[in-house]
Amino acid sequence: TYNFAAGPAVMPEPVINQIQRELPSLGGSGMSITEISHRSAAFTDIIERAEADLRALMDIPDDYAVLWMQGGGTGQFAAAPLNLATTHQRIALLDSGHWAVRAGDEATSLGFKVDVVGSTKADHYHTLPELAHPLTAGTYDYLHITTNNTIEGTAFHQLPATNGTTLVGDMSSNILAERYNVRDFGLIFAGAQKNLGPAGVTIVIVRRDLVHQVSHLPSMLNYQLFMDKHSLYNTPPVFAIYACGLVLQWLREQGGVDEMERRNREKSGRLYDFLDESKLFYNPVTSNARSLTNVPFMTGDADLDAQVIAACQAAGLMNLKGHRSVGGLRASLYNALPLAAVDALIDCLYHFEKDHA
Ligand code: PLP
Fold first, then answer.
1. Which of 164, 184, 241, 258 is deepest in the core (most CB within 10 A)?
2. Hey, whose CA ends up nearest to atom 5 of ligand 1?
3. Among all residues, which ones are annotated catalytic?
4. Do 246 and 135 fall into the same domain?
């Protein structure tokens, strides 16, 4: 079985096996990871090693803090403006699809002014937005982008020119799957459940000088508090952090982010090549905006799409139904999905096409 789910998503098989082995007794302690204190020496080792591995993998400089928070990407749609938009209470947003809109709506509902400074909505998000005008320095607390649009299947492989405005990146669906320079961002956040581990923990990477005391902030969204308390202000999601730690070790053993990007380019490239050649299937995204991790495609006929999904499922290719707003199919090709899965998918699509020619 291959799992093409958009998230929660496939995890590396050796990591799942290790979790299974270690679940009854962590390090011979006779206690499970789900039973130990977040203040124990064993968990301190786990969270410190996970942070060190994440720093090494993403080349995170010391003047950036790594926070392990809860509330998912959605929690960060609130936390980012509440912590960072304190000077102008105004943020700029590039509208590249569903999750960018959700981020903007959350900030608006909290009383911030959100200016959409570029949008490809009229183009059904098949391309990426550019800034309609250069940003004027000193106008916005930050510019929000979604580095990878999980639903629409686009990704910023090049970042917009911000003219000195702080850049905030929602990296939920391509963190560690593609190389970005952390220094280009003031804040990066990502829910763990796509490229990193199980749901329940959210990675926040924030430049320390942007973090400051903000009054009237819920503790669970407070960057200063989490930074001061090393993410242990309250009980963190112990199991999720442990599992992420194992995935981070696995990523380092595999060759790190550059190797992941190479594999993801190969996986997505094979699938895009097949789709571009196909007479039955197509991917609607402009080629230079295509995501390495989420590939939507369709036949243009909803009934036929449903038959394709059923045929794939019968072949052990799971969770290929597209998001309801786009329809068709979507193959998510995160780090833990092997190349063999993509080959199996292409094979299934090829035979379906041949049978329906
Ligand atoms: N941002 C992006 C790009 C996403 O793909 C998702 C979820 O799929 C979210 C944010 C929301 O994340 P969560 O469900 O962790 O709140």
1. 241
2. 150
3. 99, 170, 194
4. yes
